[in-house]
Each structure stands twice: as structure tokens, then as C-alpha cells.
Amino acid sequence: MKFTLSLTHNCNLNCPYCYAGSKFKKDMSLETAKKIIDFSMSMAVPGERVEFGFFGVEPFLRFNQIRDIVSYAREVEQGGASPVDFHITTNGTLITPNRLSFLRSENIGLCISVDGPAYIHDRNRRFKNGRGSFNVVMQNLGLAVETLDKVQVNSVYGPESVGSLAEIVGFFVGHDVPLIHLNPNITSTWGASNMELLEESYRAVADVYIDSYQKGKEIAVSLIDSKIIVFLKQGYERADRCGMGATEWGFAPSGNIYPCERFIVEDDGGELCLGNVHTGVNTTSRCAMLKRRGNHNPECAACSLGKFCMNWCGCTNYFMTGDAGLSSAFLCRSEKASIRAAQYALDTLRNDDLFVDHFYRYLNKGRQPIPEIIVKEKSHEQQSYVSS
To answer: How many CA atoms lie within 13 A of 135 on its CB side?
Structure first.
């Protein structure tokens, strides 16, 4: 189960695409955080690992509280509760050697938001005085890569940068970042001309990915890896799908409960709020939210790629269509392009030893040949293969 604590609604950057809305100094108290830990442990299946995420807006503004929360959670864990894991998502500007040492000692995962080279990153990720944050973030990213066993980056792309995705991935490969998440700006307006770039751009990402493996350098790119894993599993499993309000929860600084951290926004306690950790879950609101999960597009039900498609992501759907159960035209185009790019990478690297070991380590299986997997796409008039 995944529980995300939004420790503060404050931030030292002023990113225009931030879905958290206006920034204000609203911090989570330690009392509220402890309540959240207790609530989360009570919701967890005994013995099953519990994942706690520290979010913000910028969680490192509350670093001392992070230490206290981790200490409390460890005490609860040692008392016989479920085992716990921690991770932090940060804008990367407030990282220090001492903080990295703490993360290493507590085995806390770190994901740093970097949008790519300076001219792309500084377009949106700027300090409040307008100065770009690229130089600071890259210095801290290098320090993190040197200190921690595994560092992830999260790169947000929009209509203005979707054509540069291959350059962005190559940039991170050149900086020895092993795990690269590419996430679209779900608050942006994606026009037809922007969406037409998806196919070519995702294929170019696959080319960079293939080149890296052929040169003996192991990487993971969410756009490619996530789909290949789904191919190997022959479709998304129930546990993979959106668990908002069931296996996934987000907590605002006020203690308000949301089905996902992305729904907190400015924490107005509206229709997406499921209660408060101090007063309990509103079962009526929760049941209504659970009914809205999934995907209700009739076109999706008939699509031959449905089992490989992430059309069920509630927060993505909500921000792009206003309905957690209805996916957008952008998501449809993006998922199809991602499936095709992953098929291309799989076909090209099927017999590459490093590539094969990469996936079977992830799936916790012994090394074995990757089976012949061809994802078939059926149009209204004829059936064609996703791979070109």
C-alpha cells in the first residue's frame, strides 16, 4: 500500500505547471504526521510492505520533521507492524551531504525533479526571483548519484518540449542517472499538432534506450520499461492498476485525506476529500470515489490494446477530462505510441544479455529467454502489428 504525506504547501520554486496551485505556508504538524502513520498501519495488510512517500510541495523544507516521522514509523514497525519503505520526491535545490547521509542510513529512496538540459529545465523550474534552478539541481543530482545506490529523476514534458524527449533522455544517460521517469504535464492543453509528435518522439526515445544497451550501459526509462514489463506479464494485473482510495492515499498538511496526492491541490476539502485523519474516513465519499475508479470510455472497452493501456489512472483522467473514469485523447495517443516504442525496443534488444538480465532481475525471476511477444493492434478495418 502507498501512503503519501504532503508535508507542506510551501515551496522555494515557482513552477507554472505545478498542479498544487497557489503556494502558502501551511505545514503538517508532527501530531498529524503520527496520526497518519498510525492510520496507514491500521489500513495495511499484516506483513505486507507499506510505502510512505514524502511529498510537498517541497518536502525538504521540512527535513527535521522527516527525521522525526521516520523515527516514529521505525518504532511502530519494530513493534510488530508491517515493514515500511520510504521515498522522497524533491525539486533538488535543498539537498546537502548531511541529508543524503541520512537518506542512505535509512535506505530512503530519492527522486529529483529535473526536466532536462538547462534551456528546458529553466523554462519552468525557476526560483521565485525568476532565476533558473538548473545549476543548483544538477550539482545536487551529481552529489546524490555519488552518495546513494539508486537515484531517480522525474522529467515533466509538455507541448513545448515533447519533441525533445530523446535529447532529454540522452542528457540523463550522459549524467549516469539509472532510472528516468518521463511524465506529461497533465494540466496542459494538448492540441492535435502536439499529439502528432508523440509517435516520432517516443520512437526516438527508444533509439536512445537501444543505443545505451548496445553500448553496455543499463538504464530504465519509464516510457519503455513499464510497457515491456506489462508485455512480459501479458497485461496489467489488478495490483498494478490505480488504487486511489483503496491501496493509495494522499494526506494534506491539514490532515485531510485524498485518494491520491495529486488530488490535494490547494486542499479545499471539496468533493475529492475523503475525510480527515483526526476525525476518520467519510465512507460515503470513499464509496463514491471507488465507484469512479477505472475507465468507462466505451472505445477503450473495445480496444485490442486495452490490457496494455494505462487508461485507468484516476488522477491523470481527472486533470485531463474532469472525470477520474474517462481518459483523454492525449492519453490514448500517448499510450499507443508508448506501446509501439516499447515493442520496437523489445524486438531490437531481445537477445541482448544486459537487457534480458535487466528485466528478469526486476521481475525477480531467474534468467531465461524473453518470449516472442507481438502486441497486436486492431483497427476498425484491419488488424496490424504494433511493431513497424
So the answer is: 3
Q: What angle do CA 263, 305, 221 make, to 5 degrees?
A: 60
Q: Which residue type is seen at 300?
A: C
Nearest to residue 303, comparing CAs of 224, 238, 386, 228? 386
Neighbours of 364 (CB within 10 A): 6
Apex CA 167: angle with CA 203 and CA 117, to 5°?
Answer: 150
Buried/exposed 18-38: b ≥16 CB within 10 Å, e otherwise: bebeebeeebbeeebbbbbbe
C-alpha 58, offset from chain centre: 16
Asked whether 320 and 186 are in contact (CB, 8 A), the reply is yes
- Dihedral pair phi/psi, residue 360, rounded to 5°: -75, -25
- Tell me the H-state helices in the chain: 30-43, 63-78, 97-105, 118-124, 134-147, 165-174, 192-195, 197-214, 222-232, 283-292, 298-301, 314-321, 329-349, 353-362
Neighbours of 340 (CB within 10 A): 23
Q: Which fold has domain 2-240?
A: TIM Barrel (3.20.20)
- Side-chain-side CA neighbours of 231 within 13 Å: the count stands at 26
User: How many Å apart are CA 339 and CA 230, to the nearest integer?
Assistant: 10
The 3-state DSSP class for residue 98 equals: helix
What is the chain's pLDDT, residue by residue, as a tens digit (388 residues)? 999 999 999 999 999 988 887 777 799 999 999 999 999 999 888 888 999 999 989 999 999 999 999 999 999 988 877 899 999 999 999 999 999 999 999 999 999 999 999 999 999 999 999 999 999 999 999 999 999 998 999 999 999 999 999 999 999 999 999 999 999 999 999 999 999 999 999 999 999 999 999 999 999 999 999 999 999 888 998 888 888 988 899 999 999 999 999 999 989 888 899 999 999 999 999 988 888 888 888 888 889 899 999 999 999 999 999 999 999 999 999 999 999 999 999 999 999 999 998 987 776 666 666 666 666 676 533 333 343 3
CB 205 within 8 A of CB 182: yes
Contact 325, 317 (CB under 8 A): yes
Query: Grid coordinates representing 298?
Result: 466505451
Could you tell me where the beta strands, DSSP code E, fall in 28-150? 50-55, 84-90, 109-113
What is the phi/psi pair of residue 62, to 5°?
Answer: -120, 40
Q: What is the DSSP letter of 324?
A: T
Beta bridge partners of 51: 2, 85
